[in-house]
Amino acid sequence: MTTLLDLPAPAGLHAAARIVAAPGAGGRTVLPVLEGDGPFALRRLRSHAGAAHVCLVGAMSAPLGGDRLALTAVVEDTAALRFTTTAATLALPGRTGAPAAYDVRLAVGEDATLHWLPEPLISARGSDLAQTVRVDLAASARLVLREEQVLGRAGEPTGRLTTRLTVRRAGRLLFDQELAFGPRVPGWDGGAVLGGHRAVGQLLVVDPAFAARPAEPRLLGPTAAVAPLAGPAAVVSAVAPDALALRKLLDSAASRLNAVLQPV
Amino acid sequence: MGAGHAALLVLADGRFPAGGHAHSGGAEAAVKAGRVTDAASLEDFCRGRLHTAGLSAAALAAAAAAGVDPLALDDAADARTPSPALRATARRLGRQMTRAARAAWPSPELDALAAARPRGAHQPVVLGLTARAAGLGPLDAAHAAAYEAVSGPATAVVRLLGLDPFDATAVLARLAPELDHVAERAAEAARRAVHEGPDALPACSAPLLDITAEQHAAWPVRLFAS
Amino acid sequence: MHLDHPDVYPHRHTYSAASPLRPDGRRRALRIGLGGPVGSGKTATVAALCRSLREELSIAVITNDIYTREDAEFLLRNAVLPPERITAVETGACPHTAIRDDISANLEAVEDLEAVFSSSSVGPLDLILVESGGDNLTATFSKGLVDAQIFVIDVAGGDDIPRKGGPGVTTADLLVVNKTDLAPYVGADLEGMARDAEAQRGDLPVAFTSLTAEDGVAPVRDWVRGQLAAWTTPAA
């Protein structure tokens, strides 16, 4: 696990990582920039076809309470990048009780592809994390983005977790969603929001192919659904009792969207 | 500008003929799933809806009332509504509200929005523009939208569960201070949106409302349209 | 003309059935509402009217079901009209609200049907029947929604209904007393019903029907034809 522990420094840690994927010779994607400090240990892995595969290795403890983490990935025109993590990211309380921030900025160029598939974000008791993910897509870009939040480790009450995921396509807003759970968030566990579930996630797929052939709305059991957005995109939303059940739901949906998903 | 409270009462009246009576705001699906069974779980449901979809709707309405471009707000509403069933519902109700609003408070801005979105703009945007046409301000519009976010489910649950209507009304009364707070947050965000655009507005969302709206839309037998 | 064509909407008559004209200046379809208690034969009357008139008129139907789409599906199943001529409006368990207090959803349905047919090669509609979900004796249509309304009761529901009156029985433009064939079995006094109805309604017409009989809907159909003739004749 990428544990996001507490450091004595009262100001908290500021850490950043940056990935640039660019087209190389023979249709292969190269990584002219692959850098990260603090908790960000990035590795290049073997990949499918010509795509680049970057993995965030959970080798370091990363402080969160009061810290600011920033992760940026740019996929240049025609390049293809797959991003994964080796372990879940764990948000832990800091000594000061100050909230932590984790900002992810993704840009995908024309005819470029990004599969952003990190392991879940786990909100531990007493933690307070605000995550933002902003994605800017060119009109012909393809995106598969998975986001999973797990509220509390096994048997533990959750910390406070707020997220905002904003996706623009060709400069136009396509998807904008804020989620908030845990202490000081009114109504988060009621029947309108989570209804007692402890894992929540989504799989967002943007592909120009949806313009001609939109995804069909589809139910995946009582707590998950595939929904076409008001643009060439679909989102699978799911809530589940735990991380494992959530992943099962999202994976089953991914296989149903296979028609447009090409592996990278 | 400067209408008093009376116009707000007219706009927020449950009998305002804009189609709301046929919608449960997700309560019918929550009742069927056993997540709303009594006054306490109704209150939890309404509180969650108020601070998520309710806040987002209130902010869109406040921004429209503050003069932010309604078409930009309509796009922002689309991006905030991943469920196609809920987008369709929001546009249908927006169209119905446009009809009622143009009769009640004729306005060139409402006419222009109706012309640009003949199949209906998102209801909160229309609500905000209606408040503007009635001479009400952004905070008023936010109050109306936030109130709708909880009054619809509360009324529906009275019909669905045979819940004591006094209990349902008491739920709304208990939520009133939070409703004021949500309306103020929405109006504050709307003030920023005047300069920064719709991105300054909250986009709070409730996963179960989105997911179960799709299920509800597929039911062959139901009391409410959404 | 596309349905979404932005140019038509602002000129459309948007919040009342009062204007008899379409946006293009032609006379719009006549809108007739059918209300009445559950089980009195509203849907059967609509179906019979459609079968009887569909060769001579371009008809569409809007149903207001209470909690299902069964009335719409009955009409579809029995193929009284093609599916594009039938629209179901959902009423949130309050059918009388949808036809009287808040008619916005029904008006949308009416205008959508009119717009689709006006812009299609089929040509504009002549008649739109708006069927209410079964409700009580007080459920009547708003004048903002329909031009005329029919209230359907049946002899099996009790031969004292006309005597009891109520807004539907008293004010409907046509009162239909259906299932007259059952009168002997339920001990209903048809002549008494006719007398009571006249006492309540004065000159307003009453039609006694048995839809199981050959051309049983004839009295209602003839009344509808009369309404249409009056509707399409320009006022002097």
From TrEMBL, chain A:
Keyword set, alphabetical order: Chaperone, Cytoplasm, Nickel insertion
GO cellular component, one term: cytoplasm
Alphabetized InterPro entries for the sequence: UreD
Localization in the cell: Cytoplasm
Superkingdom in the source lineage: Bacteria
Coiled-coil ranges (or none): none
One MF term in the entry's GO annotations: nickel cation binding
Keyword Cytoplasm: yes
Any Pfam family: UreD
Family: Belongs to the UreD family.
Quaternary structure note: UreD, UreF and UreG form a complex that acts as a GTP-hydrolysis-dependent molecular chaperone, activating the urease apoprotein by helping to assemble the nickel containing metallocenter of UreC. The UreE protein probably delivers the nickel.
Function: Required for maturation of urease via the functional incorporation of the urease nickel metallocenter.
Official protein name in the record: Urease accessory protein UreD
Protein's organism: Streptomyces olivoverticillatus
Recorded name of the encoding gene: ureD
TrEMBL record, chain B:
A molecular function GO annotation: nickel cation binding
Cross-referenced Pfam families: UreF
Keywords, in A-Z order: Chaperone, Cytoplasm, Nickel insertion
InterPro entries xref list: UreF, UreF_sf
Subcellular location: Cytoplasm
GO CC annotation: cytoplasm
First-listed, main subcellular location of the protein, grouped into a coarse class: cytoplasm
Coiled coil: none
Function: Required for maturation of urease via the functional incorporation of the urease nickel metallocenter.
Family note: Belongs to the UreF family.
Subunit structure: UreD, UreF and UreG form a complex that acts as a GTP-hydrolysis-dependent molecular chaperone, activating the urease apoprotein by helping to assemble the nickel containing metallocenter of UreC. The UreE protein probably delivers the nickel.
Name of this protein: Urease accessory protein UreF
Gene encoding the protein: ureF
Automatic annotation (TrEMBL), chain C:
Start and end residues of each stretch annotated as Disordered: 1-22
InterPro entries, sorted: CobW/HypB/UreG_nucleotide-bd (IPR003495), P-loop_NTPase (IPR027417), UreG (IPR004400)
Binding-site positions, GTP: G36, P37, V38, G39, S40, G41, K42, T43
Xref: CDD domains: UreG (cd05540)
Domain of life per record: Bacteria
GO terms for MF: GTP binding; GTPase activity; nickel cation binding
Domain CobW/HypB/UreG nucleotide-binding positions: 32-206
Any one biological process term the GO annotation gives: urea catabolic process
Cellular localization per UniProt: Cytoplasm
Basic and acidic residues composition-biased segments: 1-10
UniProt entry keywords in alphabetical sequence: Chaperone, Cytoplasm, GTP-binding, Nickel insertion, Nucleotide-binding
The keyword Magnesium is annotated on this UniProt entry: no
GO cellular component, one term: cytoplasm
Entry similarity comment: Belongs to the SIMIBI class G3E GTPase family. UreG subfamily.
Subunit text: Homodimer. UreD, UreF and UreG form a complex that acts as a GTP-hydrolysis-dependent molecular chaperone, activating the urease apoprotein by helping to assemble the nickel containing metallocenter of UreC. The UreE protein probably delivers the nickel.
Function of the molecule: Facilitates the functional incorporation of the urease nickel metallocenter. This process requires GTP hydrolysis, probably effectuated by UreG.
Record-given protein name: Urease accessory protein UreG
Organism from which the protein derives: Streptomyces olivoverticillatus
Gene that specifies this protein: ureG
